[in-house]
Specification:
Low-confidence stretches: none
Largest sheet: 7 strands, parallel
Structural class: alpha/beta
Shape: globular
Protein name: protein-glutamate methylesterase
Number of helices: 6
Number of domains: 1
CATH topology: Rossmann fold
Catalytic activity: [protein]-L-glutamate 5-O-methyl ester + H2O = L-glutamyl-[protein] + methanol + H(+)
GO cellular component, one term: cytoplasm
Strand order of the largest sheet: 3-4-2-1-7-8-9
Helix content: 25-40%
Number of strands: 9
Order of helices and strands: EHEHEEEEHEHEHEH
GO molecular function: phosphorelay response regulator activity; protein-glutamate methylesterase activity
Mean pLDDT: 93
CATH architecture: 3-Layer(aba) Sandwich
Radius of gyration: 15 Å
CATH class: Alpha Beta
Oligomer: single chain
Strand content: 15-25%
Enzyme class: hydrolase
């Protein structure tokens, strides 16, 4: 079979307060050959244009762009939710954008991305909750676990804002609780087909 060697087809990442620096730390050393798609929700103000995709793409080898509605998800690419839109994964592994009601006062919602991706990718999904100051991501991380996926949470003591990672730990009993540096090293090993 010519299937990718990585155990994951997609990585979903949620972050809020302190998230830009955390995402840069986590993603800046990933190679262009990274075998999974990376889907990112960062809580952003709804009323301003986001420069997150350009900030990440300028610092990362992995190509990263703002997600577009009906776009196919491609391995080795990063997709960032635009401000004021939920980012969802469709059954055909394309993206959709929604302006449905905010979840935990947030649109985009980490929970909605994680839950939709869990249905599609099941055991081939890695979910990561990073720093943040609300409880978004907890229910989504639990859904990933329930569908056979793998879950990581940033060590609260390592996070700028501890509420979101601690809530995810309490609600979802993640597979691993890691510092950003440890997560980064584990992600890089995925590219070398190690588990």
């Amino acid at each position: 079979m010519h299937r990718q060697h990585s155990k994951f087809d997609a990585v979903v990442i949620g972050a809020s307060a302190g998230g830009v620096e955390a995402l840069l730390t986590l993603l800046e050393d990933l190679p262009e050959s990274f075998p999974a798609a990376v889907l990112i929700v960062l809580h952003l103000p709804a009323d301003c244009r986001s420069v997150l995709a350009s900030v990440l793409s300028n610092r990362c080898s992995l190509p990263i762009k703002e997600a577009q509605d009906k776009e196919d998800i491609v391995p080795g690419r990063g997709y960032v939710a635009p401000p004021d839109y939920h980012l969802l994964v469709e059954p055909d592994r394309s993206l959709s954008l929604s302006q449905d009601e905010a979840v935990h006062f947030s649109r985009p919602s980490i929970d909605l991305l994680f839950e939709s991706a869990a249905w599609v990718y099941r055991e081939r999904l890695l979910g990561i909750v990073l720093t943040g100051a609300n409880q978004d991501g907890s229910a989504g991380l639990k859904a990933i676990s329930e569908h056979g996926g793998t879950t990581w949470v940033q060590e609260p003591a390592d996070a700028l804002a501890t509420i979101m990672p601690q809530a995810a730990i309490d609600a979802a009993a993640p597979d691993s609780v890691l510092t950003l540096e440890a997560m980064k090293q584990k992600l890089k090993r995925l590219d070398r087909a190690e588990r």
